[in-house]
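Translate sequence into structure tokens.
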Amino acid sequence: MAAVCQILATPEDNLFSYALPDGRGFAKAMAFMFPFIADKKSWPYVQDVEYFDDWPVRQPSLLFAGTALSKPEYLAVWSRLNADPSVEEIIRNYPIRQPFLWVGRGAQS
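Result follows.
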């Protein structure tokens, strides 16, 4: 979803900050997930994904949302995460490996 927001957002229509009348939107989803990405040990739910121990990696959603929403804490966590995972299943689920090439598009242009 972060890639969709990054590609389709414009300076006039920042999809990262768009929210439905009830408050649902990308910014709210990131705000919910961020503490668990920053500290995986705080995840209160069952470890319901395969390769749980290998996550998180340097997800582009943190870079894109951190930039678009002016959230330096997202950028700080992004910078410390693994940028070069070696587990094949993690690589398969990590399609954007050069997110800096995408910054400057969409809401950032």
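Note: Residues 58 and 81 are 5 Å apart (CA to CA).
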